[in-house]
Amino acid sequence: MATEYTVPDTAAKTAAAANQEFETEKMSLAMGPSHPSTHGVLRLQLELDGETVTKCDPVLGYLHRGDEKIAENMTYNQFVPYTDRLDYLAPLANNAAYAAAVEKLANVNVGPRVEAIRVITSEMARVSSHLMGLGAYGIDVGAWTVFLYCFTEREKLYTLFEELTGARFTTSYSRIGGVSRDVPEGWNDKVLAFCDQFLPILEEILKLLTRNKIFQDRTVDVGTISAKDAVAYGLSGPNLRGSGVKSDLRKDRPYWGYDQYEFDVPVGQKGDCYDRYLCRGEEMRQSISIIRQAIAQFPEGSYYAEDARKIFAPRKAKVMSSMEELINNFMIVTEGPQMPAGEVYFEAENPKGTLGFFIVSKGGGVPWRMKIRGPSFCNLSILPKVCQNELVSDVVSILGSLDFVMGECDR
Amino acid sequence: MSEPAAADVTSAIQAKFPNATIRPSGDHPAVNLPITEVVEALQWLRDEQSYDFLVDVTAVDWAEEASPRFSAVWHLYSTTQHGYVRVVADCIDDVDPSAPTATHLWPSANWHERETWDLLGVKFENHPDLRRILMWEGYPYHPLRKEFPLAGIETELPDLEVAAETEAKVIAAPMMGGPFVASSRGEMNLTDAEPRAKDESWTEKSAKPE
């Protein structure tokens, strides 16, 4: 005997009769500014329909310190420590990129040794930044162990940074026209030893994730960005390459003699979170290879450029013993290195993407205007598009895969 | 480097846009364009000249007394030719400058233009969502303008309820006589710029007692 089911609720009945959906209310959720997955102080103002994101509005500026305003009020040399605080996970790379931009303005050619030092330190910064990115990403999607492995390795890198620059975190190592001090004796061998022991551990770290079913479920086909979108939204670095665009300034516009080194530029196929992860993993292998090549042909020479004498503060011993150097030092410190008037733009391929400095100079020791193009700023601008119709839990996964840092996003 | 020769790009632009003039540049090819032709030129550069990547949009304040006071700057990059080009256009109004939006050409222009509006007060016409991005909505100043002091200006807190409760304000940073270097405004006055002892309590606000 067939049972007849009746719908008791009259409201539901009329709605069903009129074939209309129940009115549901959209929920507004503020994710951040202090949320573990926002890796800093980013707030996502989400509009949710159930668990699906219908609108995502990133709110920035929590870490805005006015770096561009500060740059207009100090000499070129004084700004170097501020560049540490842009992408604070790879200060060595920022310092070098900034120095290279000003060198372009001043038309200074640093020697091969400085270039090699910059390549080595920038690649080490890339490894350390990607390790941090991977470790944090692991935590975001529920894999704790990766983080511990990554941090152990990163710690070893920081010990090497400390020996080279005197600081673990805010290195301020590059100077305009050189680096602050030469590579200590035996340091290169320690870097090589690090490379040797790091590669097997890197394989182990990647093994924890690459074929991990849970990790794949969280990342494959999540947050897919097409190559067209990636270019249109100005993505750069592993996020752009993850979408299959083979664009790497180290290959396309080689600086610091990157054309001497052999390395591959990994690109993704689909542009999902998993591809971006794979790109970072491979980039670390390539970076290690570049470091080894650079150390193998480490050139002799000076750690600052001779034609940067009016920019690069002279050694203390010289200042104390020579009148000319004393005056030179005084002028550099008080009025700043005198630059020609002009406009330059320089971008370097940093771990997070291309970090660019646009300098407008009217001459003198202070830039008239300095615009910093933070790659994280551009990388985040795609969030409203890519988070659309994703689940809230996938937003966490997407954020981690973009590997941004608010220091250079908010500046 | 397989960069297209600088002269090629600029002369191609000049052939297409007769009002374009070559802009002195320390590195990449650069042109000045009338602000009315900029969007057309950007679109042409993107579609015909393979400059498919908008690197950056920003503006420069050429000082309060300068006229034209503001210039908008676009940097384009070609992901196939690997070259940059810089397009500069002077904004017409010195008090309330504006520039045309490029958001319909590149979605990435959205945030760059919001930032330029926020920090320099250059209004991008027809921008779909021209809100502040780094400072909070309702902030009364454009901090990267040259007349804005480095220390900042005392302002109400963004949340008026919190402000009423706590009576707190956004205050100017104590500069203690700084900045201690030459500024882009001209020669440094060594007497004024001399660092003072930290424990002295007078600042710009409370003058040194006579």
Summarize the structure.
The complex is a heterodimer of chains A (411) and B (210). Chain A has 411 residues and is an alpha+beta fold.
Strand order of the largest sheet of chain A: 1-2-3
- The CATH topology of the largest domain in chain B is Beta Polymerase, domain 2
Q: Mean pLDDT of chain A, as a whole number?
A: 87
SSE series of chain B: HEEHEEEEHEEHEH
H/E order of the elements of chain A? HEEEHHHHHEEHHHHHHHHEEEHHHH
**Number of discrete helical segments of chain A:** 18
Number of strands of chain B: 9
CATH class of the largest domain in chain B: Alpha Beta
Helical content of chain B (DSSP H or I, runs of 4+): 10-25%
Unreliable stretches of chain B: 194-201
CATH architecture of the largest domain in chain B: 2-Layer Sandwich
Radius of gyration of chain B: 21 Å
CATH superfamily of chain A: Cytochrome-c3 Hydrogenase, chain B
Number of strands of chain A: 8
Shape field of chain A: elongated
Write structural notes for this entry.
The complex is a heterodimer of chains A (411) and B (210). Chain A is α+β, with helices and mostly antiparallel strands. Chain A has one domain: Orthogonal Bundle (Cytochrome-c3 Hydrogenase, chain B), CATH 1.10.645.10. Chain A contains 18 helices and 8 strands. Chain A is elongated and about 105 Å long. The N and C termini of chain A lie far apart (73 Å). Chain B is of the alpha/beta class. Chain B folds into 2 domains: 6-140, NADH:ubiquinone oxidoreductase Nqo5 subunit (Beta Polymerase, domain 2), CATH 3.30.460.80; 149-195, no CATH class. Chain B has helices spanning 6-16, 38-48, 109-120, 160-166, 190-193, and strands at 21-22, 30-32, 53-61, 70-77, 84-90, 98-100, 123-125, 155-156, 169-170. A 5-stranded mixed sheet of chain B has the order 1-2-5-4-3. A two-stranded parallel ribbon of chain B has the order 6-7. Chain B starts with 5 loop residues before the first helix and ends in a 17-residue tail after the last helix. At the A-B interface, helix 2, helix 9, strand 6, strand 7 and strand 8 of A face strand 3 and helix 3 of B.
